[in-house]
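Hi P.,

Sorry for the delay on this. The queue was packed all week, but I finally got your sequence through. Input first:
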Amino acid sequence: MGELFQMWGNTRMVVLTAICAALYAALLIPFKVIPLIPGITEFRPANAVPVVCSFLFGPAAAWGAAFGNLIGDFFGGLGPGDFFGFFANLFYGLVPYLLWESLTDVEPVPQRPSAFALGTSRVADLRILPVIAIAATLCATVVGWGLHSLGFHPFRVLASVVLMNNLVVAVVLSPFLLAVLYPRVSKAHLLYRDILGPRVRLPRWRVWLGVTLVVGGTIAAFAAGQLIDNGRWLAPWAAHRTDSHAFEVGLGLVPFLATAILGLAIL
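Then the structure:
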């Protein structure tokens, strides 16, 4: 995860960050007219961009997703919730490549465009889907947690809408976009590993510890948010009850989100 900050010393990575941000914002802005939750989120076909760019450009995609989302939010009206949107999209662009690279050396792309067609998918190709799912879940959890803590929208509604919005678009579009773009970007030597160089191999115990913390922390945070907001569970460290559940959700999810972030730091 250190390369998330080290990349700022590389001019080409900075340029790729700007390209990712511009592309993400350019695709977000036109769909501001199709809100799912007015003033908060809208139908976002652009949600495939951070995932695809993550596999192509690594940490540049993470910062590009964060800044691109912020630019898009500017056209819908900035607010305190955009702080959480910035970091949610940072994780959305960070998790795919970081998890994938930690687990396998296989290129994150089908060998043929039809590899994801019903009945022809291969197990190796399908490994990209749970990686996308974890990225989408962490993004949705951070957004839902942040805005519920501020008293804007209930976690059970916002996090669920953001998750489905992220997941459906990314799962449908990302494999096909990668099948088209990955070989061309690789041929141009613009993949993040072509620019930053090979990554130092981590010990297997560290890889599995990091992955377990990311996956476990993300799923636990999302589940805890749903349970707390629905009144089915109360975290012992956030036992004070409020009518909006803002305090319970705000403090109750902190250990789980911290676990997921710690896992990313280990990787």
